[in-house]
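Re: the request from the purification team.
They wanted to know what the chain is likely to look like in 3D before they choose a buffer screen. I agreed to run a prediction and write the result into the notebook, where they can find it.
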Amino acid sequence: MNKPIIICIIGESGTGKTLIADYIADKYGFALIESHTTRPKRTPDEGGHTFVSQDVFNTYPLSEMIAYTRFGGYDYCCLKGDVQKWNLYVIEEFGFEYLTDKFSGIYDIFSIRLHRDKAKRIASVGAERVGRDEGKFLFKDNVFSWVINNHSDSVAYLFQEADRFMYMLAQVKDLEFNVE
């Protein structure tokens, strides 16, 4: 039986993680895993996470967590019950490391690392969020399955690179996608 696939999308704030995750989800039918987090919402309508209190987070059994990290003073995790057949997970490096170290025998884990110029990231999400990431992304690019250096700052380029990654994944895993 084929293992569920998890594509981890990793990068600093403002690199386009959510944009590329939404693109792959819409075009290729992958499910977006929402992290359970104790972080407060940045905006009232913010999605992408399941926001919970620390008391609720503390009720999650460690045996059910497949990706746990503490980032920016807040807890984040994914639960085993969140995983479907094909998944996308926006995650930071140490959560990715935890996931691959402990669960690569259960899930097929791939990764996309995004890079973008700091000034452009600041223009997108603000200096505070970009500053919070300083010194926290330390892994070398060779750790990841695919690296996208978006120096052109082009959405079309990001999507082209996502398509190239998905083509590689389809070849490696002998998958067929229903692309509209």
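For the purification team: The domain at 5-34+84-173 is CATH 3.40.50.300 (Rossmann fold).
Please add any questions underneath this entry.
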